């Protein structure tokens, strides 16, 4: 019994083609997988459902041998699987289609499929036989490919077919697909589902990772729900529905949003009007219209890869839209990172160690880096180190940045700070960056501001953002964390496949509705 | 006036003979760099490895070995230094740029040191009997006079081009090499060891670089001089980009370059050319190489994992 | 298989021990070479050390050789810090020397006379400009056309040497040199005076030390220095923070080329008085080793340059005492570079063996 729901027993334990027992994996203090036991029957599709960070990808990476589990064992077709060895997994008949394809763009389909399937020292590759086998597999399962096409020339859907064929070519009887439809058009997804039905008809088994409820209900025979590293439910498709699954995925009562005093919104600070942007596969915006006012927190909710990075890059000044307009306080939005900083926009980037800070530079240098040539910090090109350090000292005190291990705390290299303290530093730097004399309300853009942080740090960051809102600034938070969204937002906007699909005040959303809006596939 | 000189030069056998001669070490060298870079590793040790190959091969012959023994010794010398480069850059993850330069410096100075230790008092470098020309090829129609004036090493170089092409495109080993240079994660996922493949490719490529050097002392000249290699290694690095990492185009690039070099040598002697100081003519090869790099830079289809260290393990 | 794992914190002792361990390994490995040459190890190394540092004369000689090394070391350090691999310091040095002599030769010859001190300053500036602009070519090729600067700067070295050779054969030839390719000599007023009597040590050393101090100060105290450090450490974060990355790379290249050009001018004005084709026994390339040994720190460059200069001077002396070829110094320097790279890597990373 799990969560009060009867667990559907895996169809005849005896004929399980795959059995995971007590798989546990920790990364530091975080338990990515916590004693997960699952069985997979022959000729069935098992869906692994869960939010971001629930542990789905970790589990299948362990299965395929990319990671080593800390505890637990795996049996494939009755034989114990040697852990941590992709070659052994392949030999045991397990094939994996990764979310991020492992294909060489400059080589052909046939090259990519053939790699590693012949003894290394054979004097001649038997390309003719390989090609014949590839073509026959493709025809048998309805996966049209051109063996001599370079990967770079293929569409995303075609590339995925190549990934699948790689596994089939090696005789996989268990196929793992990691978020396969994340990159596909609706038509391509339909085509994929048809292919999966072929596999099942052939006696293969499929593990299908997804967070999209429609697909899971369309294609799975059984559904295993993961949450925070644990297996919380296993249901046959016929015994459940989308609403129940959404509830199981999210699973808890989100703390009721704090009672908000009715507040008048300030003027429009950020205005996006019909913005179009096409950066790359998971970074597109289509016709986005959005307004953020002073004195409100707008949360952009959505599953990763639905346009959040494009929106962030846009607001950070790194790219400009192909169509549509952006305005900041009724003036055109600044078009370079430097201009955005000069305009007083406070930015908290998603990756605090790659974009947000220079690890080898000290705390005070990171605190000052955005304002380095401002009159307060430099004159005639010479740095006013005293002023910079004093400013950093204030920042550190105000924002409670701790963990400086150096004798002189400010000189600690940024890479030695914990995630939470680094984020507090970055936020403090962003919020302190207002130039003198700027009267209009400020825009604050925070991208996954509390990702990977402990409870204390999360509370501190949230308090700051709320305080900024109360002071009249416009705050835009992009987040995949529903707790955070409900804790902060005045208004929740859902981004799905590059479009705004729904905007409502926080009080007008239920959790299930939000989950559905984020996960449901809309007609293109 | 210039055109008449040019035509006279190009129409002569001597020009083509010189082209093949100048091109031979370049062919070996470019193929060597090509192997390394196809596997994703930049090997800037080539200049020094060529010096080491030149010295080691020549020294082996001087000590009494046959010419082919000398070539083998040069290849093994190159391979040994290639192994060093591979170990430092692949598992230890050192900067490929600086490691390569360090190896060039070390192998060059080591070669000069070894030479001086072996011949402390000589001012004139001792000579050996170099590879003989292939007189038996002279009767061949059209190409006979040109080919007959070459040595066996040149024929080896020319034969290596289709051989390397075959290995790269028609064998599982070649596919593995290309894959680790494009997407090492894909290779690892298919059960191919990125470390072993890369090191193997570097060792093989460096052996070719060693042979390139030995051509200079065993065929082109018959003694070992200081400053013999004179930047040929760097030129090979530039030519590989120009050749888009394909053996056939590499041969073409090497011969084209050699032709320009042979032409400028002769133009120096011509009436018009003689008016230009010889130093400007000698600059041509280097300037050409830079131009070649500039021309292809934007569209170069680099092996996608070139110069990116691969850290195996948790993604 | 070997796997590298980043250490959370590099211990301070490790940071200091690393270069010393590298040097120790180097001397041990090169001891093998001494043995090969048939010389007694103890006596050889004693001659090496004594020859480099053991007497007033030796020290003066070492410092003389260290002078251009400090400058080319600084050139490499400032460039490598921004991840711009300037391998062309050798060529920039020669161009700087040529420019210095060209300007210095203007005394009285251009129809106006300039006071010697002013002309001297003009010489130095011309040298720095020559080096800077020459490297700027490679820098622009990289920022605009994505052409890797390593091969271009290397190839340009050969071009410069040929150019200098032509100049010395023609336009800048010294007619009184009896056919020997060298430039006209600088007048004594334009030369650097001696620091130590009866030695070759000249005030150029002070210029080099000054440059090291200035570079250190620039990196630490100026906005540009901050930008250079940020771009070299993490260009993505630098760009995010609004630092203009490409412009910073170009400015770095200008500084680097200027320093190398200055090395040439200082050599000409201090040691040789005229430009010859062999005035630099590879100072440009040795500068890279100096920079790496000093972990790209400008003040460390001074120490590393003195060490390497000592090796060269000592090797000359050693070769006279025992029959060990002078090339051993080059080997020592190159092996030291590789050893230092490995040591630095082991300081930052732990090596793990996995099955």
Radius of gyration of chain B: 20 Å
- Helix percent of chain C reads over 70%
Ends distance of chain C: 6 Å
What's the arrangement of strands in the largest beta sheet of chain C?
1-2
How large is the radius of gyration of chain C? 21 Å
Largest sheet of chain B: none
Task: Report the strand count of chain B.
Answer: 0
Question: Any idea of the CATH class of chain B?
Answer: Mainly Alpha
User: Which protein chains are joined by the largest interface, and how many residues does each one contribute?
Assistant: B-C, 47 and 51 residues
What kind of oligomer do you see? heterotrimer
H and E order of chain B: HHHHHHHHHHHHH
Kindly estimate the percentage of residues of chain C that lie in beta strands according to DSSP: under 5%
Number of domains of chain B: 1
Tell me the span between the first and last alpha carbons of chain B.
Answer: 65 Å
Count of DSSP H/I helices of chain C: 13
How helix-rich are the residues of chain B, as a percent range? 55-70%
**CATH fold name of chain B:** ABC transporter involved in vitamin B12 uptake, BtuC
Sheet having the most strands of chain C: 2 strands, antiparallel
Give the helix/strand class of chain B. Answer: mainly alpha
Instruction: State the low-pLDDT regions of chain B, or none.
Output: none
Counted by DSSP, the helix tally of chain B is 13
Architecture overview:
The complex is a heterotrimer of chains A (524), B (315) and C (355). By secondary structure, chain A is α/β, with parallel strands linked by helices. Chain A is built from 16 helices and 22 strands. Mean pLDDT of chain A is 84; it is low at 1-13. Chain B is mainly alpha-helical and 315 residues long. Chain B has helices at 2-10, 13-38, 46-62, 67-89, 96-118, 144-148, 152-170, 172-182, 184-189, 194-220, 232-242, 247-269, 278-297. The longest helix of chain B is centred in the middle third of the chain and has 27 residues, at 194-220. Chain C is globular, with a radius of gyration of 21 Å. Chain C has 13 helices and 2 strands. Chain C has a two-stranded antiparallel ribbon with strand order 1-2. By secondary structure, chain C is mainly α. Chain C has a domain at 66-294. At the B-C interface, helix 5, helix 11 and helix 13 of B face strand 1, helix 6, helix 11 and helix 13 of C.
């Amino acid at each position: 019994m799990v969560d009060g729901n009867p667990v559907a027993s895996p169809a005849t334990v005896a004929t399980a083609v795959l059995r995971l027992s007590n798989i546990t994996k920790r990364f530091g203090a975080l338990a990515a997988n916590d004693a997960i036991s699952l069985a997979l029957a022959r000729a069935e599709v098992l869906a692994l459902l869960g939010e971001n960070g629930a542990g789905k990808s970790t589990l299948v990476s362990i299965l395929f041998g990319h990671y080593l589990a800390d505890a637990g064992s795996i049996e494939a077709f009755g034989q114990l699987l040697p852990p941590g060895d992709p070659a052994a997994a392949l030999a045991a008949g397990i094939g994996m289609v990764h979310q991020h394809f492992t294909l060489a763009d400059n080589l052909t389909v046939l090259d990519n499929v053939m790699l590693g399937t012949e003894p290394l020292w054979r004097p001649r590759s038997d390309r003719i036989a390989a090609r014949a086998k590839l073509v026959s597999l493709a025809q048998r399962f309805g996966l049209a490919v051109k063996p001599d096409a370079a990967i770079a020339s293929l569409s995303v859907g075609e590339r995925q077919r190549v990934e699948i064929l790689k596994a089939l070519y090696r005789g996989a009887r268990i196929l793992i697909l990691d978020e396969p439809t994340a990159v596909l058009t609706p038509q391509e997804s339909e085509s994929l589902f048809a292919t999966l039905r072929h596999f099942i008809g052939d006696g293969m088994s499929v593990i299908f990772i997804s967070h999209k409820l429609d697909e899971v209900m369309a294609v799975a025979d059984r559904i295993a729900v993961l949450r925070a590293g644990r297996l919380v439910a296993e249901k046959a498709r016929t015994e459940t529905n989308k609403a129940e699954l959404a509830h199981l995925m999210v699973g808890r009562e989100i703390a009721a949003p704090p009672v908000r005093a009715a507040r008048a919104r300030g003027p429009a600070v950020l205005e996006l009007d019909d913005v179009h942007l096409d950066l790359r596969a998971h970074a597109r915006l289509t016709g986005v219209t959005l307004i953020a006012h002073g004195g409100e927190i707008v949360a952009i909710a959505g599953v990763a890869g639905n346009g959040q990075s494009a929106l962030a890059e846009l607001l950070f000044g790194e790219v400009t839209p192909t169509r549509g307009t952006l305005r900041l306080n009724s003036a055109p939005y600044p078009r370079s990172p430097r201009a955005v900083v000069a305009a007083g926009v406070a930015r908290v980037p998603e990756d605090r160690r790659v974009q947000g800070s220079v690890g080898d530079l000290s705390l005070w240098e990171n605190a000052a880096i955005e304002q380095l040539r401002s009159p307060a910090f430099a004159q005639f090109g010479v740095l006013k180190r005293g002023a910079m350090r004093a400013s950093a000292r204030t920042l550190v005190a105000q924002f409670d940045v701790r963990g400086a291990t150096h004798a002189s705390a400010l000189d600690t290299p940024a890479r030695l700070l914990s995630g939470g303290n680094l984020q507090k530093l970055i936020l403090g730097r962003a919020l302190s960056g207002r130039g003198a004399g700027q009267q209009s309300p400020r825009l604050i853009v925070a991208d996954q501001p509390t990702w990977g942080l402990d409870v204390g740090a999360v509370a501190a960051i949230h308090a700051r953002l709320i305080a900024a809102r109360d002071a009249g600034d416009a705050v835009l938070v992009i987040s995949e964390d529903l707790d955070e969204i409900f804790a902060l937002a005045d208004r929740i906007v859902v981004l799905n496949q590059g479009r705004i699909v729904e905007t409502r005040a926080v009080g007008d959303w239920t959790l299930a509705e939000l989950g559905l809006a984020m996960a449901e596939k809309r007609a293109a | 006036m210039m055109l008449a000189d040019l035509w006279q030069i190009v129409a002569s056998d001597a020009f083509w003979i010189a082209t093949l001669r100048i091109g031979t070490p370049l062919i070996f060298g470019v193929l060597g760099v090509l192997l390394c870079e196809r596997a994703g590793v930049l090997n800037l040790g080539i200049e020094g490895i060529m010096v080491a190959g030149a010295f080691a091969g020549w020294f082996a012959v001087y000590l009494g070995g046959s010419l082919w023994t000398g070539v083998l010794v040069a290849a093994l010398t190159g391979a040994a230094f290639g192994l060093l480069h591979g170990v430092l850059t692949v598992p230890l993850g050192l900067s490929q740029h600086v490691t390569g330069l360090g190896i060039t410096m070390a192998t060059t100075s080591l070669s000069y040191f070894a030479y001086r230790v072996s011949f402390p008092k000589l001012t004139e470098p001792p000579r050996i009997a170099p590879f003989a020309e292939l007189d038996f090829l002279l009767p061949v129609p059209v190409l006979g006079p040109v080919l007959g004036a070459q040595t066996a090493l040149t024929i080896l170089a020319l034969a290596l081009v289709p051989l390397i092409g075959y290995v790269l495109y028609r064998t599982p080993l070649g596919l593995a090499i290309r894959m680790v240079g494009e997407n090492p994660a894909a290779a690892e996922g298919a059960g191919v060891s990125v470390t072993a493949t890369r090191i193997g490719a570097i060792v093989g490529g460096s052996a070719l670089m060693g042979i390139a050097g030995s051509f200079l002392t065993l065929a082109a000249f018959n003694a070992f001089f200081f400053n013999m290699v004179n930047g040929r290694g760097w030129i090979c690095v530039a030519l590989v980009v120009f050749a888009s990492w394909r053996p056939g185009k590499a041969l073409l690039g090497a011969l084209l370059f050699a032709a320009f070099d042979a032409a400028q040598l002769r133009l120096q002697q011509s009436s018009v050319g003689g008016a230009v100081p010889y130093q400007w003519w000698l600059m041509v090869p280097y300037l050409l190489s830079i131009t070649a790099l500039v021309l292809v830079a934007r569209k170069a289809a680099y092996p996608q994992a070139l110069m990116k260290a691969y850290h195996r393990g948790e993604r | 298989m070997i796997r590298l794992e980043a250490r959370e914190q590099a211990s301070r002792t490790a940071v200091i021990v690393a270069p010393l361990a590298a040097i120790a390994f180097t001397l041990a490995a090169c001891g093998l070479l001494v043995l090969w040459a048939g010389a007694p190890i103890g006596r050889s190394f004693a001659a090496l050390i004594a020859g480099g540092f053991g007497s007033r004369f030796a020290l003066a000689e070492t410092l003389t050789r260290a002078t251009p090394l400090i400058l080319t070391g600084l050139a490499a350090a400032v460039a490598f810090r921004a991840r711009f691999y300037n391998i062309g310091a050798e060529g920039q040095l020669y161009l700087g020397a040529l420019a210095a002599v060209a300007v210095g030769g203007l005394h009285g010859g251009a129809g106006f006379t300039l006071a010697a001190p002013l002309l001297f300053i003009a010489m130095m500036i011309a040298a720095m400009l020559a080096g800077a602009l020459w490297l700027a070519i490679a820098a622009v090729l990289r920022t605009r056309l994505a052409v890797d600067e390593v091969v271009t700067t290397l190839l340009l070295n050969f071009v410069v040497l040929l150019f200098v050779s032509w100049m010395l054969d023609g336009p800048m030839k010294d007619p009184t040199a009896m056919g020997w390719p060298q430039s006209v000599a600088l007048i004594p007023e334009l030369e650097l005076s001696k620091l130590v009597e009866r030695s070759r040590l000249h005030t150029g050393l002070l210029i080099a030390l000054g440059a090291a101090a200035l570079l250190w100060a620039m990196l630490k105290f100026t906005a540009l220095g901050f930008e250079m450090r940020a771009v070299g450490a993490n260009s993505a974060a630098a760009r995010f923070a609004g630092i203009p990355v490409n412009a910073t790379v170009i400015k770095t290249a200008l500084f680097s080329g200027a320093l190398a050009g200055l090395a040439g001018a200082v050599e000409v004005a201090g040691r040789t008085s005229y430009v010859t084709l062999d005035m630099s026994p590879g100072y440009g390339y040795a500068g890279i080793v100096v920079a790496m040994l000093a972990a790209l720190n400008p003040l460390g460059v001074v120490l590393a340059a003195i060490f390497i200069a000592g090796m060269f001077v000592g090797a000359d002396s050693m070769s006279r005492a025992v029959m060990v070829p002078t090339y051993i110094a080059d080997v020592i320097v190159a092996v030291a570079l590789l050893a230092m790279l490995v040591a630095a890597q082991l300081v930052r990373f732990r090596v793990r063996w996995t099955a």
